[in-house]
Amino acid sequence: MLHDEKPSNRSSNRPFQDVLKANMSRRNLLKRSAVLSAASFASSLVGNGLNSRTAAASSSGTSFAGSLIAQSLNPEIGFSPVTIAEAIVDSTVPHISSDYQYDVLIPWGTPLESGVPEYAGDPVNRTTADAQLKQVGIGHDGMHFFPENGTSNTKGVLCINHEFGRTPHVLGKALPESVSDVRTMQHAHGVACVEIEKVNGAWQVVLDSPKNRRVNFNTPVAFGGPAANSPLLQNTAGNEFQGTVNNCANGFTPWGTYLTCEENFNGYFNNSQVDQANAPDDPALGEGSPLTGADERYGVTAEGFGYAWGGTSGTVFDPRCDTSNPAFVNERNRFGWIVEIDPENPTAKPVKRTAMGRFKHEGVGGTVGAGGRFVGYMGDDQRFDYCYKFVSQTSWRSMRARGLSPLDYGKLYVAKFNDDNTGEWMEITYRNPAIRDAVDEQGQPVFRNQADVLVFTRVAADILGATPMDRPEWVTVGPTGDCFWAMTNNSQRETADAVNLRAPNPDGYILKTRDSGNHVGTTFTWEHFIFADETHAEGDERTFSDPDGLWADPDGRLFIETDGGQQKGLQDQCLVANPETGEIRRLFVGVSGDEITGIAYTPDRRTLFINTQHPGNGDPTTTNFPAPTDGVTIPRDCTIVITRKDGGIVGS
Ligand code: FEO
Ligand code: CA
Ligand code: CA
Ligand code: CA
Fold first, then answer.
1. What is the pLDDT of residues 337-380, one digit of tens each?
2. Given a cut of 50, is residue 47 above it in pLDDT?
3. What's the rounded Cα separation, in Å, for the pair 328 and 108?
4. Are 386 and 378 in contact (CB under 8 A)?
5. 247 pLDDT above the threshold of 90
6. How many C-beta atoms surround the C-beta of residue 541 within 10 A?
7. CA distances (Å), 648 to each of 59, 249, 602, in order?
8. H or E segment to which residue 170 belongs
9. Which of 147, 188, 340, 400 lies at a 20 to 30 A Cα distance from 392?
């Protein structure tokens, strides 16, 4: 298909382009001057009365975040932190607190079945498309441990996201050269469900477990919720629903399923007619591609992110990813969702839950709110994008008893932050006249129904006047009901506002919100928890930048994982904060080029799992981790298993 032929179904998306133009100017108007007193938004780690509050009781299970039985909280941190001086000596290996120890688990290429080869980082003989189907993927990110029988501290299924692997890291070349190359990369992405067991003190894969599973870009999937049958999800090619990609952070449900979140899906779509090797420098890239206005709002471009799965220079690899092919013009609408996976049923199709909206989903911080409703807080990780909340229609238990998914029926909200430390959750619904009556320049409705609204959630949120944030990443709901949000950074912010106080904001901050109505209300209060730049002073050992992964443990501690350039010579790290005292201690420091992300734990919290993602950015001259240093072996993403030497709770 020539790139200048127009797609047959472009008209259905066309109105969004006009709305987008209007909304771009609206978004500019929303940028306000910072006229607020510094004092009223001082970002101190003030005590928040953790000990005096108790969480709303819930019977949803022993390990479900934010829904714990009332208890006395104790967020004290007793371990010796990794000092800056210790951490910067050698960046080819990780560093951990002297009170702790770590092991490496499931590096990229670990076989899940006997007979499958291990990929151990050989720079010459790389992994293959076939092998990668049954190997642990690359780009370890969000994950959750599902204990056997709901209680085991020594056996369970670890569901883990394989967010991405750059082409040179996976293939050892700049671009794929064949469909086989593309399949290798596609199979390295996605999700792994791996049964693991602690044997003689060490965690290992249960090889050949029937629960072991890989989900990748080509795995059959299903859709649920109001947009499941939308024409906007259908291609004239008639192809089935397949795959998940760029699985970033995660969530989990009180009914025992894993939620994997599709983030930068746009980067995997590109115009096969364009030379992808020169794509980043080609000013004409956007031309000649049947990209719609809505694609523009989701960042789909002719060049993608250099994966070139669609093809390059006139050679098509995977037509699903080729933006020049009008027969697949809605393929990209099938990505950007939250996907539910049942770790106990490896043959069940993953289900994309459309009621939770379509954007660049970072993760979902789940809890159980008033009336037993499932509530998920969600960030859309892009500069100037938004914070969201989903609330199930009624009690998750009653919905499931009726055979309904609590993730298919409910309300989706987007956040508006007021200057006075209050905020509103604005429902994203076709019933809202601002959305229902939105028209394009020809007077045609922008949205025809709730399905349209959900497929183009960002456009609807624009119309409602949501507050543009500094790249919302993870959210975690603490035991007191407070939500912590990571705003990782925003180098392009030119004007501060009440909540986004730094312009530009190169180091990020952590926001704290508290909902009305036990998580199901439409208002909230907010305050700054900490700005990362406040930790950089000379002699301040806390220094961190670019908060990304967050987990509030049941004692009230806040685990902070970073992704970005750290100061004072540090690599990315995992720190633990005591919100009552403002104390922050450094638990773990990764290797050069990596990102620390993902957090999972056994029910007793004596074992913590975190990930190092893209160690050395795949460059073996930087680090060979987890292999011993040899300057040759390709570094591999892996899970880090952390335990206290005295067997205590991790973080204490
Ligand atoms: Fe995949 Fe926003 O981190
Ligand atoms: Ca990541
Ligand atoms: Ca992230
Ligand atoms: Ca990040």
1. 999 999 999 999 999 999 999 999 999 999 999 999 999 999 99
2. no
3. 31
4. no
5. yes
6. 14
7. 26, 27, 12
8. helix 167-171
9. 147
- 443 Cβ neighbours under 8 A, 6+ residues apart: none
Task: Give the whole-angstrom CA distance, residue 268 versus residue 241.
Answer: 16
Q: Greater confidence, 36 or 562? A: 562
User: What six digits make up the tokens of 111?
Assistant: 């076989």
d(CA 573, CA 587): 8
Could you tell me the pLDDT band of residue 498, with boundaries at 50, 70 and 90?
A: very high
Task: Return the closest-CA partner of residue 425 out of 446, 445, 410, 438.
Answer: 410
* Interatomic CA distance for residues 262 and 246, integer angstroms: 5
Find out whether the peptide bond into 504 is cis, omega within 30 degrees of 0. Answer: yes
Tell me what percent of the residues of the chain surpass a pLDDT of 90. 83
Q: Distance between CA atoms of 430 and 355, rounded to whole angstroms?
A: 12
pLDDT in tens, 580-604: 999 999 999 999 999 999 999 999 9
Q: Write out the two tokens for 160.
A: 């883990």
Ligand 1 atom closest to 473 (CA): 2
CA count, 13 A, side-chain hemisphere, 366: 28
CA 248 – ligand 2 centroid, Å = 6
Q: Is 163 in the pocket of ligand 1 (CB under 6 A)?
A: yes
Helix, coil or strand: residue 181: helix
CB of 555 closer than 6 A to ligand 1? Answer: no
DSSP 8-class letter at 542: T
The answer to whether 539 touches 523, Cβ cutoff 8 Å, is: no
CA nearest ligand 1 atom 1, residue: 248
Nearest to 639 by CA among 54, 159, 59, 16: 159
Separation of CA 473 and ligand 3 centre (Å) = 6
Stated length of the chain: 652
Beta carbons of 358 and 333 less than 8 angstroms apart: yes
Q: How far apart are CA 569 and CA 571, in angstroms?
A: 7
Q: What is residue 182's three-state secondary structure?
A: helix
Q: Which listed ligand is nearest to 247 at the C-alpha? A: 1
Q: How far is the C-alpha of 415 from the C-alpha of 429, rounded, in Å?
A: 14
| Residue written as token pair 């570094």 | 635
Helix spans in 611-650 (H):
none
